[in-house]
Protein 1
Amino acid sequence: MAEPLLELDQVYASYGAIESLKGVTLSVQAGEIVTLIGGNGAGKTTTLKCISGLHAVSRGSIRFDGRDLKNLPPHDIVRLGIGHSPEGRRVFARMTVAENLDLGAYIRKDKVETALDLAKVYALFPVLEQRRQQLAGTLSGGEQQMLAVGRAMMARPRLLLLDEPSLGLAPLIVQTIFQVILTLNQQGTTILLVEQNARMALKIANRGYVLETGEITMTGPASDLLVDPRVQSAYLGQ
Amino acid sequence: MDTLVQQLIIGLTNGMVFALIALGYTMVYGILEFINFAHGDVFMLASFLALTLVGALGLQQQTGMVFALELLGIILTCAAFAASLNWTIDRLVYKPLRKAPKLAPLVSAIGVSFILQNIGLFWGGMPLKVFGGGNQAAAPKAFPDLLPATNLLGPNSHLTLLPKDVLVIGASLTVMAALYGLVRFTKLGKAMRATAQDPTAARLMGIDVDFVVGATFVIGGCLAGFAAVIYSLYINTVHYQMGYQNGLYAFTAAVVGGIGNIPGAVLGGLLLGLLRALSDQFIGAQWQPAVLFGVLIVILVFRPAGLLGSTAREKV
């Protein structure tokens, strides 16, 4: 296999005295959708934060495209091609939808290409175009999630980190969001998806990892995990 | 009627100065949720620099192109000085405390305020002619009246509008318009607004938040340095405690306008200036602080977040 696009090797991280990641090792190949599933507090969000530089790695290494991300601040990591749609969406509530998307393209100078990507986001999420002059804080939860994903796309990342895109959303909206994730992937974006909705995540992913209290306990092709009795009883409610 | 209009002119000019200082408090608060209590003293030291420069250049009341350029030079030098001072204080004192409990940087800021006042006291004791030979360091220093005292409304008018009134109002409006343009239309302004709303999300957009914070201190310092020269030309006195009082007033203005809100700081400053002038005229100067702060307290009772402040931070 070729060298992975993203590679975590024995990554440790902590909040004060509490170790939240205890040697996480995982990899994502270019073109894949990989999902990281697990319960509350397992360390899924922390893993994504370590990758995008929002949380310090205490031991271990993270490599992206062959480059060590150690000590790089988040604003440099974005420039290497990692987009992050964070936990809780974090849209800029007092700015319009258009301003939010514009901030997503903050690092870019290629105006023409950026405009094309904006058209692409609007094509995937027509509701965002209808509401482009509306303040992001007035959008529904689902629309805010679409905005968070669209905003991350505007940087044209090679790897997109998605943190719980289905959280708190109606099933129909979840379908829409997952459909977009598939489309993005088909258009060439590699995806690392953190989800509590394990069934949906495993259905669209190529491979999956199960994270429990800071450690990877299982890994394999998503189709295998979907039928694994341990995964089924712990995460699929069967 | 004339007295009312006259007091409005006085209130407006004073209010502009409060507004300029208030902007420095509110911009830093908007981004860090932190009150830089040393801000008023940066303003004070800049006015000491202005007086020192006036003495060094031997400026006296005159007109002409050269004089105007010298004045502009003093304004720019003081703005640059206050900007570097403000930036340096942030890097040395506040930045190491960014993740500390909120009271730590606050107490440090109060400490910096006292240190700067002490420096002002020493500065005032320098044996310079403009400082009265430095014999009484703590005494107010006279700032020469550099602008002519001709009434622009004509010698027979009941109202007085001096060139320095026009300078204060005109220059302040220009600076505020420039600030508005910067925050609204530039890439830095975009980054500042994003950082003020959500620093974490701003980082994920590729914004260097440290740089944005530094730039905010530089801009706030520029405004304080500019206000210092304008204030000195207008009030004609500098004193090592002037930053404390004006700073407190400006801080109040920022809170009444809605802390963190840029138009709010301007509105609060103007309101404070106008209230002060009207209360002096119609109630009596001896009641000024009580009337002023009484009204402001009433405003805050009904609008706790300030006139333009949002009642709650949107968290979704």
Protein 2
Amino acid sequence: MRIVLFWSVSLFAFAAFGVTHSGKVLEKGTRLPLKGANVFVLPLQLKVRTDNEGAFSIDIPEGDFTWVVNVSDYIRYEREEHQGPEPVTSTILYLERRLYDVYETTIYGKEEKRDDRSHTLTQKQFLKMPGSGGDPLKAVQNLPGIARASGFSSNIIIEGSAPKDTHYTLDGIEIPIVFHFGGLTSVFFPEAIERLDYLPSGYGPEYGRAMGGQIGVWTKSGRTDAARGLTFVDFFQAGALAEGPVGNGSYLVGVRQSYFGLLLGLLFQGNANFDLQVVPAYTDGIAVYETKFTDHDRFRFATAASDDRLGFLFSSPVNKDATARGSFNYETSFYRFIPEWIHKFSDDTSSRVFLGVGKDFVHVDATSNDQSFSFETSNWAVTPRAEIEHKILASWKSIWGIDSLFNWPTYSFQLPASGSGSSPTPKTVTLETPRIQMAGLYLRNEIAPPETNWTLSPGLRTDYFSSTHETLLGPRFAARYQWSENLTLRGATGLYYQPPQPQEIEKTIGNPSLSASRAVHFTTGFEKDFREGAKEGFSISSDAFYKVMDRIVVPSSTYVVRDGQLVTENYNNAGSGHAVGLASELKLHGRMLSGFLSYTLSQSTRHDPSHGEYLFQYDQTHVATLGLQLEGQDHWTLSARVRYVTGNPYTPVIDSVYDTDAGFYTPIYGLYNSQRLPDFFSVDLRFDKQWIFNSWILSLYVDVQNATNNKNVEAIRYGYNYKTSDFLAGLPILPTIGLKGEF
Amino acid sequence: MPLVALLLLFGCSRLDLGLVELLSELRVVALKADQPEVAAGTTVTITPVVSDFKGGGRALTYSVSGCLDPASIGEQAERCDSRADRVEIAASTGVTGLSSPHYTGAINTFSVTVPPAVLTLASGVQKANGWWYLVQFALTASDGATVTAVKRILVSNRGTVNTNPTLTSVIADGAALATLPTDRTTLSASVPAASKQSYTLTFSDGSTKSQDESLAVRWFITSGTLTSATTGTEGTTDWQSPTAPATLVTVLSDGRGGTDYQIFSSP
């Protein structure tokens, strides 16, 4: 009887819960499986939990029911359904996130922040930064201590230093070209970049050869959970990116191509005066392969490449000067292969070995009637780096490393024929500069004495420069005091060297006797987080910096004896300078509303025998940037940036002289850098909106630079005799609309 | 930055900053030396061509000084002011030769003697190719307006020296310019072929090369418009809508200090 009852109950139970219903719970738009999610079947009070693949299987009796899934950070999911007599195996429940940052990943293998003053911009931060167009390097310009690049350049100028004093690395490897056409956009596909590190004054010994600071760009590894891709198009360019798992690792490939040049070509089509023979165009790409071949070994191979080209022809006289007609061609390109091996010996010891191999190429030529000029440089670069990190004690970590760079450059240039005067220069010159070696060794220690709140980082860097035949020691020291859980005090100092540029030491056009320039950095400051553990609230950081620079390379027209001949010196190390300032940042961390206010007060001066003491050409007393971002619940974001910057110094023209033989006027200049251009002000806006579909996401973005169409002065242009002048304004209001599909 | 060049080139609007070819304010149009290339110690006569079209006949004076061209010794300076070897040649000399209504033309000449020792520090190659002697000419109006111009005289020991090119006449629509055009006329310069000289350049390794001069024609007007302010000797420029009284000054330059000019003035 009991058996009959059991089977009766079982049969009834089978009849009541008899239909198997299986499926998956996936994230809407990305199709990522949601593991460990509770799936409720109401009103039957049934529940099942998804596995690691997001899959579930549950028996549901015939009839109407409602799926309910409620996961943190996702919008509650409800769907009514009818269960029939047949099993169901293909149910997909798509859950929509409250906020989508599809291409934000957990930073894998992220190095600890070694320099307290370093700033990191994540992909999420720079993609939506207003005024930057999603470009990582342009977003850096919002950080404290960064001066605004002048004109149409996007060079990054760090705390009173020159643009050439900033070094750029990709995955730790130095790269020569970071912007297309000198500033239009960086050469990096933004969604292929994981993060960007900005190292200002007092940076550690791992890097060198730069008196200003370092900008490190780090590529993103491909996703290992599923294959993904995106494609985008906007006014200027289009691109595509694909990533996903492969074997024991992942891959990522991204390529961009500009087409704004075609629009320019159409604009000038039929113009009798101007023939755009080669429309301005750029291409860039990044590819990354990563694999883990043992539990202790990871191998990574990154590739980056970029190409720019432009060419035009003047068919008719330029500016009514019939002798000024001709052509202009410009091409620049580079590529780098970066293999990397990371090995973990133990929990206390790990190593990293990587190498950069590639070539750089620049070609410029211009013709005007019978005269022509061309310049071409080609350079092979090999950049080996290696590092071992070892925890000697619980409170003492030591890092040793090698950071070297080998270049094989070739320069050639053709000058216009010199028709008269003394000792005309030969028409074509090819300069074979010897191999340029820069070898560096470094040592960093991080010591946190027990039962104190101090962390001390003494370090040392040794650099050898073959171009100047110098071996130089660069000590570094940083200290951090944890005053409280939310208040950090910090300071750093160091001696930094920077070798001359290749053309400055070349024996024909430069001075092979030059020495490396150097700078001493002092910086002190604090960082306070007012949130005290909460997610929302304010934080503030402020750092004073002071730099002393000497042996700066400056032009020289003095005559010297070289190899027994009297020649012009061309350059010497007679330059020096100072930079002092305060770089501060106030951040608002919020769920819906976030923002920052960065402000830098500074002065940068230089001295050289020709001009005495003067304001540096990039001196900007005040640089203030306010950024705000509002995120709406329906997947939209509105952000704004307001910038105010003191105008750059310039040298006024006080008179002119008419050269009756050459037929042009030569300006006579006043005191060097004694005047300032008008101050800069701009408002940039950005709007992002996402539409989340089951298996893909569509994004629209509208980016408006200089939304108030302020006529910011970038330069002065003069009349033919320099008696009249007016200001040349920079970019007017510049809207960009783009569409992006992520799948 | 190539895109900067592209944008600046087409961002420039010359009309609002003045036109080099339009004579209205105080200008030095040309300085013609009777001998553009000489040996050291030679005296050269220079004829200034100036314009003060809208000056209303105000009094003008000129000053002249000379020095070794700083560029010859690798220094950067556009004038003789504050040069150690500066020589004052003329001081506040009254200008004669301009008349109403054009106040444009050649004025009183002055002489410059090139110092005999000017090539003392020059090497053999530099002596063969020549060093420049700079003549600085400052023209001042009675109200204080000043313009400064420079003229270079080549000083060498070359056997065959440079001479001035010849601007025979100005051609307007195929015929010598005789009357003020009423609407639009195409101008060109009549220059004999012999004006384009060949000369020898000597290089530091002792080799030599024959080089041809590159002649340029510069056009200046007091009214109307020109399609080109500078042409080659084969080129043309269109002069449109001049109104009387009008002056056309045509300056021929060989790029090595040699100069000639023609002045046409309508009644």
